[in-house]
TrEMBL record:
PANTHER family: SUGAR KINASE, XYLULOSE KINASE
InterPro entries xref list: ATPase_NBD (IPR043129), FGGY_Carb_Kinase (IPR050406), FGGY_N (IPR018484)
Highest rank taxon of the organism: Bacteria
Organism name: Arachnia propionica
Transferase listed as a keyword: yes
Name of this protein: Carbohydrate kinase FGGY N-terminal domain-containing protein
Gene Ontology BP terms: D-xylose metabolic process
Length: 440
């Protein structure tokens, strides 16, 4: 019987659990939709239900690999940042989990209280709607009173808690809260005071990926005894599955969102941090606990998905066929995309002679030009990257990869189908003692 590790990836769209062998090959995976509930004010999730669903797919995945003669000895959790679970003293949720893109909260009020530049310099983030402190301040404004015994866990940390009964926080996820002092390496008292809380709201100092949170009890028999670690924020964890997270590396994660992840040394000056935040990037401590990482995001994949649907090519196979056709045509000369954002985009300059394939080529080229611009803006602050790679669903698109390849951006030969699962499972291998080094 082989002793293997499992990665659990709590994504915005899907919940996934998969078992990985010693060669980082995915043996089996289970997945289901993330159970968001759409309200008039935005998407929320019942965190207790979310935990139940994740435990269910963990158990099912473990049963499947047990039938193949394998046993899970370690589990790593990763997933979305900002969304979390506010728990009472008994570990029960006190509020729903708000999506990271939820529009509730008054970021301007928090910004006035803490200062825009100060917030950026301390946390490495912009004072927008994403950081968890905005939602916690919203709860305070709605009458919630924080008190000792209550706890805030980011969602992957909450899943680790549900698996072990132990509460602990992790570096990269802690940074997404807006409550962590990046340079001081401690919780930010001013932000906690703003919401009427203290450091007791968080379960101690953050741990690096690969540090054991606890073991799964016998009440979850399929994985009983497995060592659990919180691997961290999904973007750096996925990137670590294909390249060692050493300073100077750049990974493009090409999903619905394009994420450019730069690993840097943990010594950026305040001026550099503020400059990165000003261009829309974030700076956090890497899950390995040693380096930092800079994250810039663009709605590249989302925009292409919307355009494909507009062109009647929403099916994946139809979209791939459109890309193959676009590789043999001229771009639509006058057409261009404008005002590209998470909310949508405009198309202008389309003429009667333009074709869907030509418009598609134009869109891909223009979106990659924006991607180049973001990379160059980050490089102006922290220097050019020494190594680049790509991963994610859009690496299967021939046109996108032709254009990426022309820029020297290529997938590695061992790029996994589920990089988040694999990266988390690699952290679990460290926690369970199967390997001595993390993400080498």
């Amino acid at each position: 019987m082989a002793e293997l590790t499992m990665g659990v990836d709590i994504g915005t769209t899907r919940l996934k659990a998969g078992v990985v062998d010693e060669e980082r090959a995915l043996i089996h995976a289970e997945a289901t939709a993330t159970p968001w509930r759409i309200t008039d004010e935005g998407p929320v999730v019942d965190v207790a239900e979310l935990g139940d669903v994740v435990i269910g797919i963990v158990r099912q995945c473990a049963r499947e690999v047990a039938a193949l003669g394998h046993w899970v000895v370690g589990i790593g959790t990763t997933g979305m940042g900002e969304t979390g679970a506010l728990l009472d003293a008994g570990g029960e949720p006190l509020a729903p989990g708000f999506a990271w893109h939820h529009t509730l909260g008054d970021a301007d009020a928090v910004q006035r209280a803490l200062g825009r530049d100060r917030f950026a310099a301390v946390t490495g983030h912009g004072c927008d709607l994403a950081p968890s402190v905005i939602k916690l301040d919203y709860l305070r404004g709605m009458g919630h009173r924080f008190a000792p015994g209550q706890r805030w866990l980011n969602i992957p940390e909450y899943i680790s808690y549900r698996l072990t009964g132990e509460q602990a926080c992790e570096f990269s996820l802690s940074g997404r809260t807006g409550l962590y002092d990046l340079r001081g390496q401690c919780w930010w008292d001013d932000a906690l005071n703003l919401i009427g809380a203290g450091t007791w709201l968080l379960p101690g100092d953050p741990l690096p990926a690969g540090a054991a949170v606890g073991k799964v009890p016998s009440s979850i028999p399929e994985v009983a005894g497995a060592v659990v670690t919180t691997a961290g924020h999904d973007h750096p964890v996925a990137a670590a599955s294909v390249m060692s997270p050493v300073p100077g590396t750049l990974c493009y994660s090409l999903g619905t969102s394009e994420a450019q992840l730069r690993v840097v040394t943990a010594d950026l000056a305040e001026e550099q941090i503020r400059a990165l935040v000003a261009i829309g990037a974030t700076v956090d401590r890497h899950p390995n606990g040693e380096a930092w990482y800079v994250l810039g995001t663009l709605p590249t994949g989302l925009t292409l998905e919307r355009l494909a649907a507009l062109l009647g090519r929403s099916d994946t196979r139809e979209r791939l066929a459109l890309s193959r056709e676009a590789m043999t045509v001229e771009r639509a000369p006058g057409a261009r995309l404008r005002e590209v954002s998470l909310d949508g985009f405009d198309i202008v300059g389309v003429t009667s002679g333009d074709t869907p394939a030509g418009l598609w080529l134009t869109a891909v080229e223009s979106l990659l030009a924006v991607s180049d611009g973001l990379r160059d803006e980050m490089s102006a602050v922290i220097g050019a990257p020494r190594a680049e790679t790509v991963l994610g669903g859009w690496t299967h698109d021939p046109l996108v990869m032709r254009e990426r390849g022309r820029r020297g951006q290529r997938a590695t030969d061992n790029s996994p189908l589920e990089p988040g699962i694999v990266g988390a499972a690699m952290a679990a291998a460290k926690a369970s003692g199967q390997v001595t080094a993390l993400w080498q």
